[in-house]
Amino acid sequence: MEPAILLGMIGALAYKLVDFVKFLTNRDKNALITQAAAWIIGILVVVMSSLSNIFEGFVLPGMTTAINDLDVFSLVIIGMSLQSVMGITFDFKKAIDGSDSAVVPTIIPGAPSGEVETERDSGQSTYNIVIVIAAILLIVCMVVWLTRR
Fold it and tell me: Model-level pTM?
């Protein structure tokens, strides 16, 4: 059963990556930034956990290596996958909560959920956001790599 957990996490990541591409092509800034922020936070939490004494020797189900002995790319995949599983769980909750009783504010103040950019040149700002997010992820990976040397 444990390998099925890892496969489920990877499947969830692939599913949310497809959503991310949809958000990007439809210029849905709020959804794009929300998903990217979730992945960044997931990666940071997993990296911080791997560097802490609390999780020393902790082995995720389906793995044989402790979290504090994993390489940077494994930590990135685990962080993004865990957040993707939570994202799918949140999507499911939204789908069955017809009363919207668990509504949360958008990450961009004042932006309605699902807002799509329609102006031609506003797409540049969306791509700039993606580049900044990629740079942050690269910096996190480099810091983790340097601390493990």
Answer: 0.68
